[in-house]
Amino acid sequence: MSADDTGVDSWRVTLPCTRAEAEAIDAADDLAIDAVLMTSEEVEDDREHWRLDAYVEDRPSPEMLAALKALVPSAAGVEPVVTPLGAEDWVAMSQAGLEPIREGRFVVHTSAHPTPSPEGGRAFLIDAGQAFGTGHHATTAGCLAMLEGLSAQAVTNAIDLGTGTGLLAFAARHLWPAARVTATDIDPAAILVTRENMATNDVADIALIVADGALSPEITAAAPYDLVIANILAGPLISMAPEVATIAAPHAAIVLAGLLETQREQVVAAFTACGCTLEAVDRRGDWTILRLTAGATRHVPGAPIDPRGRDGWALDL
């Protein structure tokens, strides 16, 4: 650290990006960049005006800046904004813009915005760096609303595919306290985060599984599920439709999110082909949340399920 860097605790590099680029960054397993990367909407429900913030301990080198710029081709010709940060906690700074989500009986908040549980409801603390899932407030709030709308329905076995932070599994546990609840994700780090969030929020009795979609023997052995939640992205949802339908019980509720309104028809068509029926649509800006009902008999795929279509978790159709 140079003399000019005295008192500097870390650095932030900021670049504009698109929503598609943000999703690709969030979905990547290992970008080989020694930085904490966070993406956020600059303009709500605007596909083109997003932002990448990279936090690093040392002054970013030209190589680091070049690697970050390579992640956001739409920002070609834009000079990164490099900001020195003092001893204040930069994670707390990043949380400052994440206002609590309030949806029905649920509140989701960060440490920067502590919020009590509403009367008869539940507050969940999900800190920055984990965000609230793709689409931030829109898809999260929409999924919580869909789950609350199902609260009068009996659920004995629920699964949250692509759980991320564990939030939707936590909501299911609150709504159906006697049910078996499973949270699964392709990323082992997400399961570690979910386990930490369970402890933070005093949530118990959720089975945690690292798995690619619903193909894990642990998942299929516990099937069928009368509630399936998948807040992922349109591409994986489409390719996963046969296996999701396969683990769903007859007449099971299926909540899907992470898709844009322009992608709705393709997602619905994929699940309709597996015997599912669209029951409800909740559109929030560009984002759409779907609730479907599985067929009267449990789906049996006409051919072996091929997982290769899911190799791009950030696929934007």
Q: Could you explain how this protein is built, in words?
A:
This protein is an alpha/beta fold and 317 residues long. Helices cover 28% and strands 28% of the residues. It contains nine helices and 14 strands. A hairpin with a 2-residue loop joins strand 13 (277-284) and strand 14. Helix 4 packs parallel to helix 5 (167-175) and helix 8 packs parallel to helix 9. The chain is globular, with a radius of gyration of 20 Å. The N and C termini lie far apart (45 Å). Residues 130-135 and 311-317 have low confidence and may be disordered.
For the record, give the distance between the C-alpha atoms at the N and C termini, rounded to a whole number. Answer: 45 Å
Spans of 5+ residues with little confidence (pLDDT < 50)? 130-135, 311-317
Mean pLDDT: 85
Number of strands: 14
Helix content: 25-40%
Secondary structural class: alpha/beta
What is the N-to-C order of secondary-structure elements (H for helix, E for strand)?
EHEEHEHEEEHEHEHEHEHEHEE
Radius of gyration: 20 Å
Q: Total helix count?
A: 9
Shape, per Cα inertia axes: globular
How much beta, percentage-wise? 25-35%
Strand order of the largest sheet: 10-9-8-11-12-14-13
Main sheet attributes: strand count, strand direction, barrel closure:
7 strands, mixed
